[in-house]
Request: fold
Amino acid sequence: MEYKAKYITDDIKLSCYEDKFFKSDIMFEHHMLIWFISGETKIVQTNATYVFKEGDIFLIPRNQLATIINYPKNSQPHKTVVMHLTTTRLRDFYANHDVKPKVLEPQMIYSYNNHPLLESCLASLIPYFDMEELPEDIASLKITEAISILRAIDKGIDNILANFEEPGKIDLVSYMENNFMFNLPLEKFGYLTGRSLTTFKRDFKIAFNKTPQRWLTQKRLELAHYQFIQNKKKPIDVCYEVGFENLSHFSYAFKKHFGYAPTELTGKLP
Reply:
C-alpha cells in the first residue's frame, strides 16, 4: 500500500491511499471533518456500517472506535481532505459563544452528503496543498469557517463540538461486549473506559476471569462464526470486520478454536 499525505497545517491534510487494500482500527482523538474526493471506503462501527464515496462529507466525533476498510475500486485512489477539529481550537471558538451542550449518548458519524457550503469550504483548500508555506492565520480562518458552517446547517452540532469532557469510568463489561471487535491497544480501551492500563487489566480479570487478549480472541472468533452462519459473509470480509489484521492469522486461529477452517464452514453453506 502506498500512502501519501500533504499537510497545510497539522490539522488540515490531503490524504491519498493508492488503489490497494487498506485496513485500520482507529480511535479518533479529534473530531474529523472529511470530504471524499475519489474512491470508496467502508467504516464499521459498533452499531452501524457506512460506505462513503466521491462527494460525501462527514464528521466523525472524537473518542469513537471504527474499523476503516479501503477496497480497490475502479482504479481510483482513496483521496480525501481531512480537517481535525481539535479540543484546543474548539475551546477557543466557543469561548466567544454562550453555549451549554446537552449530555448525549455516544454519537455515530454525521453525514452531510455533498452540502454546497461545506464542499465549497473544503474544496477551497486544494490549491493550498501545492504551496510551500501557508500563513497560520489563513488555515485558522478555514477551520473557523468550517465550524461556523456546521453550526449553521446542523443545529444540534454544538452538543458534540462544545462538549470537552474526557471519558469517565464506565461499566467495563458493557463497553467491552459492544466494542471487542476493534483491534486497539489495551491502553486505548483503558482510556475509553476511564481507567489506567493497570486498573483496566485488574478490573477485566475480575469481570471476565480471563486475560483481555484471550477473551478478545474468543469473542472475535465467535462473532466470525455467527457472521458465516447467519449472514453468509465471506472470510475475507469477516476477518477484518471482527478485529483480525490478516486472513492467514484469522484462518489459523479459527481452525484452532473450532476444529475446522472458515472455508470448510462457508463451503457447506447453502
